[in-house]
Design a protein that fits this description.
single chain, 176 residues, mainly alpha, two-stranded antiparallel sheet, 5 helices, 5 strands, 40% helix
Amino acid sequence: MDDVLGAQLATRHLLDLGHETVWHVAGPPGWTASEARRSGWLSELGDRGRPMNPEFATTDWTAESGYRAGLRIAQNPSITAVLAANDAMALGVMKALTEKGRSVPADVSVVGFDDMSEARYFQPGLTTIRLDFDEVGRVAVERLLHLMGGEPAELIPAITPELIVRESTATPRPQA
């Protein structure tokens, strides 16, 4: 998976909507996907000359981690856009924001990552990065069969992610 490109697409989408910057709820340390998504987020902010704020650190990929980060996000009224490292974490962020009286997307736009099958049923529907796990599996099995048949090892091309826009993102409210 091209997780770097996925995070760039998500960050670009939020910036293109007019958000000044994007905050990141990071995946747990030590995971390749966490580092790649962080890298994509930072590179897009840097390429656009936008402020790079500290990320919200987590210890796992759960909705609970996202919820805990969301409680901290809700305390900062200047945060208008968030990229969560996966959809479960985005769900937790959205729940915390709602509980604390902040509306998604009117006050804070939220983007997830993975396009889990439930993402369209979140309230509001979650804007997310779709990763085609079926294609990854197909390519991996195909490559393995070729290797077992004696063919030389080749680099496997990264699967291109896709931005899926739903109702959890919007233009930011004008600052008073």
